[in-house]
Amino acid sequence: MNKKTFDRIRLRELRRAKRLKGIEFAKRIGCSNDHLSRIENGGTSPSRKLVERMAKVLRVPAESLYVAETMAGTLSTRSREENELLDAFRRLSPQQADYVVALTVSLADGGSLDAAAAAAQGYMAVQESRRASAAQARKPARRGEADSRQA
Predict the structure, then answer these.
(1) CATH classification for the domain delimited by 92-138, as one of 1.10.286, 3.10.20, 1.10.10, 1.10.3210
(2) Distance between CA 5 and CA 124 in Å, rounded?
(3) DSSP H stretches of helix in the chain
(4) pLDDT band at 68 (very low <50, low <70, confident <90, very high)
């Protein structure tokens, strides 16, 4: 039989995706913020009843908050720095995230920091131009402009 382990990383990701602060989520599932923090940081595991309340608030099946024990080792393989980086990345605006991705890809492909920054800035300029064009296309014509076109 395949034993299951609580997936604390998935819990945090789902909670954040629903834009629930820890204290708000803890209150809604009926536990203290300290207890929720210990669960999310791997210090303790929640009871089955608590997992069911979490799933209900997050609107996911309770089973989705578990992972096969054979996979559980991968849950803690991220370093503290990697987790901090992921947390920071999730707080970026879509435009900022695009820039970071372009910069990272350029660096990973062997580019220098200056070349990567230039590539990312070029990428952002193209994205901004596309956004401006799309916004202009959605913008209704001003009344005066429409009148002059009809004349």
Answers:
(1) 1.10.286
(2) 42
(3) 8-17, 22-29, 33-40, 48-58, 69-72, 80-90, 94-108, 113-138, 143-150
(4) low
CATH code for the domain defined by 4-77: 1.10.260.40
What is the dihedral angle through the alpha carbons of 6, 84, 32, 34, rounded to the nearest 10 degrees?
A: 100
Taking the CA atoms of residue 84, residue 86, residue 90 and residue 94 in that order, the dihedral angle to the nearest 10 degrees is: 130
| pLDDT at 82 (0 to 100) | 74
Strand, helix or coil at 78?
coil
Cα 109 from Cα 111, distance rounded (Å): 6
Rounded to an integer, the average pLDDT of 97-123 is 80
Look up the pTM and report it: 0.47
